[in-house]
Amino acid sequence: MKGFAKRTAEVGEYYFSIKLKEVKRLTEEGHPVINMGIGNPDLPPHPSVIGELQDSAAIPSNHGYQGYQGIPELRIAMSEFYRRHYAVDKDPQSEILPLIGSKEGIMHISMTFLNEGDEVLVPDPGYPTYSSVTKLLGAKVKPYALLDSNAWYPDFDLLEQQDLSQVKLMWCNYPHMPSGAKADISVFEKLVSFAKKHQIVLVHDNPYSFVLEDSPKSIFQAEGAEEVALELNSLSKSSNMAGWRIGMAIGRKDWIAEITKVKSNMDSGMFLPLQKGAIAAMGIDEDWFEQKNQVYGARRKLIWRFAELLGLEFKRDTAGMFVWAKLPSGISGYQFVDVLLEKAHIFTAPGEIFGTEGHGYVRFSLCIAEEKILDAIKRIESIKPIF
Ligand SMILES: Cc1ncc(COP(=O)(O)O)c(C=O)c1O
C-alpha cells in the first residue's frame, strides 16, 4: 500500500465522533449523559409523510434505480414549496436539483466550481463542512469573521480591504448556525452586490428557515440574486426528516446543469418512496410547522433557564434549533464542555468547533425533550457552582 491520498491529512476526525465515544463510555459506566450537543431532530415527520413512504415501498416496482434529478413531481413540489413559503418562483425543470441532503450539495457545488488553490470565503463561526470540503478539494479556506458586535453579519468594509482576486465561492447561512442570527433581506442584498462586484459565486445554505422563524426567507428574495447566488435547502430540520437525506439546490439553469453533471457521476438517484414522502412533506400546511415550533419554543425557554443558571449570556431573538451562549471570560468552550460532562454528565457543543470566532461560546441543541432539560437544570442546581 502506497499511502492514503494527501487530502485525508487535511481533515481530522469529527469532534462529535470522538466525544460521543466518551459519552457512550460514561453511560456504560452507569452515568447516563444528557446530550444537548447535536442538532438531530427527535420529533417525527408528519404522519402523512410516513404513510406515503410505506405505501410507496409496498409497491414491488418502486425499488429500482431512480433518475439523477429526482422525479418531476418532486421538483414541482419543491418549486411550489418555494412559491408558497418564500414567494420565489423557480422552474422545476431547470432551476431545482433534488439532493441526498444539503450536506452533499456542499461537496457537489464545491466540486463544480473549485480548482486547487482557489479561495473560498467561509463564515467563522459556521458549519464546519464548508471548510472541510474546501480543504478536501485542495482549495483554500478564507474565513470571514461574524461577530456579536455586528449582529453576526459579515463586515463588508473589512471584506473589501482584502485581496479577493482568487476568491471563487462564498458560503453564507441565515438563520445562522450556530448563533441563531436571523436572515435580513438588506444583508442578503449586500451579499448579492458584494458577490456581483467581485464575480464570486454566493451560496446561501438555508436549512433553518422553518425553525422558530416567523417569516422564512430565501436569498432569492434579494434583488439580483438569481444572477450570482445558489441556495441549498433541506427537509432535515424543517420537516424532521434528517435521516431521510432530502435536500435541494436552487439557482440558475446553467449552474444547476453543471452541478447535475457532477452529481450524476457520484450517486444513482434517490429511493422512490423517499421522494414520495418528501412530496407529502412539502405539501403540509402551516399548522404543523407552528405546532413543531411551539415544542421548540417551550424547550428553548427551559434551555435559557439552564444557561442562566450557569451564568451564561445569550440572545433571545434568534431562529434555528440552538441556543448560542457566551461563557464568562477566560473559559474556553472545550474547557466548559469537559467540566460539564465530568461533573454533571451533560454534553454540549463547544463554540470552537465552528471556527476561531466561536472561542468562548457553547451551543445547546433544542433537539431534546423537556424532561431531560429539567433533569439537566436539577443536576446543575445540585452541584452549583460548577466553576
Ligand atoms: C448550517 C447547516 N448546513 C447544512 C447542514 C446539513 O443538513 P442536511 O441534513 O440537509 O445535509 C446542517 C446540518 O446540521 C447545518 O447545520
TrEMBL record:
Annotated PANTHER family: AMINO ACID AMINOTRANSFERASE, L-GLUTAMINE--4-(METHYLSULFANYL)-2-OXOBUTANOATE AMINOTRANSFERASE
Biological source species = Arthrospiribacter ruber
Q: Which PROSITE patterns match?
A: AA_TRANSFER_CLASS_1
This protein's UniProt keywords:
Aminotransferase, Transferase
| Protein name, as recorded | Aminotransferase class I/II-fold pyridoxal phosphate-dependent enzyme
Cofactor(s), by name = pyridoxal 5'-phosphate
User: Which domain of life does the UniProt lineage start with?
Assistant: Bacteria
The family database entries (Pfam families) matched by this protein are listed as: Aminotran_1_2
The segment(s) forming the Aminotransferase class I/classII large domain are: 32-380
